[in-house]
Amino acid sequence: MSVMSTASAADAAPVADTAPASGALTPTQIGQIAEEYLVAHPDKLGEVMATYLAEHPEFLVAAGESLRQRQQISQQQMFVQMAVTKQATLLDSQSPSVGPADAKAAVVMFFDYQCSYCGKMAPVVEALIKANPDVRFVFKEFPIFASRWPVSALAARVGEQIWLNKGGAAYLAYHNALYATGHVEGQMTEKDVQEAAKPYLNEQALKAIELAQNEGPVHDALQANADLAKEMNFTGTPAFVVMPQAQNPDAQRISVVPGSTSQEMLQMAIQKARG
């Protein structure tokens, strides 16, 4: 149903004289007719719009897609601005990391060992580390599934302790060993954690970690990660921030990915961060 069919012949008569000789109305003339009709009949606006949308559902689809895109752009801008504000905390030297401390670019990853999407991203991150030896990779243990599967918290605490005791290479080996089990979504066990940690921590150290759940540097590091994730508005894992390490970074060179992604996308983000 068109706007014209809603108007009566008398309503349309005043503008009919402006039609070309062929009898076809131009888009401008149709617009004038519609505008004059709706001004004269404001009560018909809802009816006309409802009829139009019923006959043109693609308009609603396009409008919804446009709204979704605007929301995504707005969210990305918010993420990037927060990354600029929280750069020092994102890149702090207390978090486990590998790669040059003075690298031009850094990749920060928030993750949980029980997260299936994190598990899928683990070999991607491993490949990126090998392909980008000049980039610093920072690991933010964020065991969001700990309330459901306590081993998530244990795995995170052990990882932090290995970092403190043995450094980045040992931490990365432990990290990759846990994901290599393929045990996610509640399948990971304490034995998995103990086996992955065995080359780096003795039984006494593991017992101490289990006892010191609510205090100490490991507890403080995990709490700082949780606070940072909340400030970044990360509600799930994985989440990535790829950014320059220089002070006052250009926001145009920062990428924030709140979810899993492809190796190609992360590599492009690294290139952008390098400048």
In terms of quaternary structure, what is this? single chain
Q: What proportion of the residues form beta strands (DSSP E)?
A: 5-15%
> What is the strand arrangement across the widest sheet?
1-3-2-4-5
End-to-end Cα distance, whole Å, is: 54 Å
The largest β sheet comes out as:
5 strands, mixed
Mean pLDDT over the residues: 86
Describe the structure.
The chain has 275 residues and is α+β, with helices and mostly antiparallel strands. Helix content is 59%, strand content 9%. It has helices at 3-6, 9-16, 27-40, 45-55, 57-85, 87-90, 116-131, 151-166, 168-180, 190-197, 203-211, 216-232, 263-274, and strands spanning 97-98, 105-111, 136-141, 239-244, 255-257. Helix 8 (151-166) packs antiparallel against helix 9, helix 8 (151-166) crosses helix 12 (216-232) and helix 9 packs antiparallel against helix 10. The relative contact order is 0.13. The model is unreliable at 1-20 (pLDDT under 50).
Q: What brief labels describe this structure?
A:
275 residues, alpha+beta, 59% helix, elongated, disordered N terminus
Any chance you could write out the topology, listing elements then pairs?
Elements: H1 3-6, H2 9-16, H3 27-40, H4 45-55, H5 57-85, H6 87-90, E1 97-98, E2 105-111, H7 116-131, E3 136-141, H8 151-166, H9 168-180, H10 190-197, H11 203-211, H12 216-232, E4 239-244, E5 255-257, H13 263-274
Parallel strand pairs: 2-3
Antiparallel strand pairs: 1-3, 2-4, 4-5
